[in-house]
Amino acid sequence: MTSPSQSAVPAAPTSVRLVIVSIGMLLLLSSLDQTIVSTALPTIVADLGGLEHLSWVVTAYILASTVVAPLYGKIGDLYGRRNTVFVAVGLFLLGSALCGLAQSMGFLIMARVLQGFGGGGLFVLALSVVGDVIAPQDRGKVQGVFAAVFTVSAVIGPLMGGWFVDVFSWHWIFYINIPVGAIAVGFFAASFRPTGRRVRHKIDWAGALALSLALAALTLFTSLGGRSFDWSSARSLGLVAVALVSAAAFLRIESRAAEPILPLSLFRLNVFWVTSVVGFIAGASMFGAITFMPLYLQIAQGATPTVSGLLLIPMTIGILSSSNFSGRSMGRTGKYRVLTITGLGVLALGMFALSNLAPDTPVWLFCLYLATVGLGMGFIFPVLTTSVQNAVPREQLGTATAAGLMFRQIGGSIAVAAFGAIFAARMAAQLGLSAPGRGDFSPRMVAGLPEAARAAIGEAVVNSLQPIYWLAAGLAVIGLVFALRLEEIPLHNRMVARGE
Question: What is the DSSP letter of 229?
């Protein structure tokens, strides 16, 4: 197998910079599409209908990108990373165009799936391309830049989504991807030269299919059960059966595969399985918090989409502050266990605080609650990757890193689907609707209602969100219990042992 150093392209400094800029732009687009949609969701639902499918606009993208991500690395080795980047970007931009053209919620969700199939490859391919053009000692700096890109997307995503809805229309949160993506892929094509090298892999297609079926069935069950059909119905039981059988098949396939997507031997490592659980919970909390906050702000509090985007910034400030502290602390002490425990404790506190929101909660208090959630997540996220990379054998470093990202994304997709089901069902019950999809309220429509009607709808939104944040707080407490079992392998000792 060709190592990164062997396959490095002797590119000129200008070409390297263009490669990094182009990949950074593509990563920004991919990560923005997980957050930019959130502030536009109330308007999209009002335009297309289908409140019961609201969470699927977010879940479809996350789930699709999660399932395909493990395959992109090996496909890039087989067919060339340059060609694979073109395919991933092509799928992403085609999906973006179809999202903008959507005239129904079902069409939009399917277009989001196509978008996710492309977006899921961009992060994996970015790390591979860095290995091709950057010397080993400089890769950490570039990956730090990419981490900053994801942080920036969390800040500007909700704000951009609100601005496009206010100034243009929600369709433009998807259309804007096309010119930016075209420029980025043009830079990439001009600066990244193909190496002509290929690495033979036996791609675990059977494992990928089994994993996809298990995740899709589980997400459908959590999203549709109790609303589109009863929990005890044949459809519900069928989905549960498909999820269980597919999961069992996946475990059997992975135990025998020559190059498994997820080596089961990793689960014998304490650090890997504990951080996988914590990553699942952190993903569930992050996407759950982001997805439903604009509904509270725009409908219960009457904020415009742009203002609701601005009011999500305190969470990002919290993430930035505590993640910076965590990184410095790990570099100074070589320890991470106490950071994980602290983060989950603060996250539980923040989610508990959000469960006490009311239509008249002061803005400053809401921002304080959200900043607390961000502080908790910022303590957790840097630890997940650093501790795993410190614990696994070097030859499994990339696989373990990708697996950690996968668990975080799976947590997000399942939680958003489940939380969306809870929210839609409680909204229907609160407003006395015959079906969860009948209450498709836009912020403008609600603003035009009599004061008593606005107050009733706002109260219904708040009451429907409360159990979501109680559940998120409970998940954080469960994560805290697992974090207490986390083994601490001093970072400095491991780096010295590896000669780093």
Answer: B
DSSP state of 297: I
| 296-299, Cβ contacts within 8 angstroms, sequence gap of 24 or more | 296/357, 296/461, 296/462, 296/465, 298/39, 298/42, 298/443, 299/42, 299/441, 299/443, 299/446, 299/457, 299/458, 299/461
CA atoms of 388 and 376, how far apart (whole Å): 19
In order of 46, 188, 359, 490, the CA distances from 295 in angstroms are 12, 38, 12, 43
Confidence at 449, pLDDT banded by 50, 70, 90: confident
12: left (phi over 0), alpha (psi -120 to 50) or beta: beta
SS3 225: strand
Structure tokens at 122: 């961009």
Task: Determine the Cα–Cα distance for residues 241 and 277; give it in Å rounded to an integer.
Answer: 23
Q: Which amino acid is at 447?
A: A
Quickly tell me which residue has 């903008």 as its tokens: 100
> Which of 54-63, 251-260, 482-491 shows the lowest mean pLDDT across its residues?
54-63
Strand, coil or helix: 43: helix
Half-sphere exposure of 241 (CA within 13 A, CB side): 7
